[in-house]
Design brief:
The protein is α/β, with parallel strands linked by helices. Helix content is about 35%, strand content about 15%. It has an eight-stranded mixed beta sheet, with helices on both faces. The longest helix is centred in the last third of the chain and has 15 residues.
């Protein structure tokens, strides 16, 4: 097994910390995490795909871990993160990569594919589907399942929490920072079939006046050892305590900028390259199995593969074998010319 090695890339505009695993001149697979994670969220994928013949890389995204942290909301717009990844790809000596994204990482790699298809072999998204018009409440709310989220009770459906960031940013941030250990334990938990057919907890955030029932901080719950080890937990907590939640939460403060960026995509945002989408069967915020949330992706991706994973939102950490198997099968079927091992 190849070791996972820590690296730092410094350019004139940004610093990227990243993990890398595998032979340096092997085809690149770059894994992009979401909120509020780190490069280590791909700890189960990096050695697996290095052993399968790839150079597997995972950066800390801006605002996280040991990458640059910025003090303005606009510094967390998708256009900036796409530029970070192009810099990383250049530094790694790659013309193209296979890009894999989860949560906010999915709009990042999808945006990279829609603006720079020449830098992509293919794109895989976990939980968050590709929306050519842009990942923002304006495009998400029209797709809400109104049988589950009546308009009068949940105007923005499960996306109420995104509007709460826009309306009460400091309050949202403060609740996460009040007890970071409890925040990580409360958020990063496995999925359950028991939530099917019920509103996501994110739908209640505005009505409750904040996350965690509006109590101002996360409750004390046991760590979910099916998703995290104590070492993983400690790494997440240390990074989030050091940097705070301004950066992670600011990713939600760029709807207008991200919509404008989406309008600048080539080919009208249509993706012709191979795309893989992994549905989280028990992900009730990014609910794509029963709702219409994935429909725009099916229209705008010309070569789309879909797989349902029996998992909650933290799929790569909760069900790594299923995720790795789905990725490997897709690579073998759709990108055999890249997989030369």
């Amino acid at each position: 097994m190849f070791p996972v090695v820590e690296n730092i890339l410094k350019t004139d505009r940004h610093k990227t910390f990243y993990l890398a695993c595998g032979v340096e001149d092997a085809p690149l697979m770059i894994f992009v995490h979401g909120w509020p994670e780190l490069a280590i969220s791909w700890r189960h994928q990096l050695p697996c795909f290095a052993d399968l013949g790839f150079r597997a890389v995972a950066p800390d995204m801006r605002g996280y871990g040991r990458s640059s942290v910025y003090s303005r909301h606009e510094d967390y717009a998708l256009e900036q993160s796409v530029a970070d990844l192009i810099e990383l790809l250049d530094a790694l000596g790659g013309e193209k990569a296979i890009w894999v994204g989860h949560d906010w990482g999915s709009p990042v790699v999808s945006s990279l594919a829609s603006h720079h298809p020449e830098r992509c072999f293919g794109v895989a998204n976990l939980c968050v589907p590709y929306l050519a018009r842009g990942f923002a409440p304006q495009t998400l709310i029209p797709l809400v399942d109104r049988s589950l989220y009546p308009d009068a009770q949940f105007p923005a459906g499960q996306w109420e929490y995104q509007l709460f960031y826009e309306e009460s940013f400091d309050k949202a941030r403060a609740a996460f920072e009040a007890n970071v250990s409890n925040t990580v334990k409360a958020l990063i938990r496995k999925g359950s079939a028991s939530g099917k057919g019920k509103p996501s907890r994110t739908a209640h955030v505005r009505r409750d006046g904040g996350w965690f029932g509006g109590k101002g901080q996360a409750p004390e719950v046991p760590m979910d050892t099916d998703v995290l080890t104590p070492a993983d937990f400690d790494t997440y907590v240390a990074a989030l305590e050091r940097n705070g939640f301004f950066g992670p939460d600011s990713w939600y403060m760029n709807s207008a900028r991200n919509l404008e960026f989406a309008r600048q995509a080539v080919h009208g945002g249509v993706l012709s390259l191979p795309v893989l989408f992994l549905h989280g069967e028990y992900d009730y915020t990014c609910e794509t199995v029963a709702s219409r949330l994935a429909d725009p992706m099916r229209k705008d991706c010309r070569n789309l593969t879909e797989v349902i994973v029996p998992s909650g939102h933290w799929m790569a950490q909760e069900k790594p074998a299923a995720v790795n198997a789905a990725l490997a099968k897709w690579l073998a079927v759709q990108l055999p010319e890249v997989w030369v091992a």
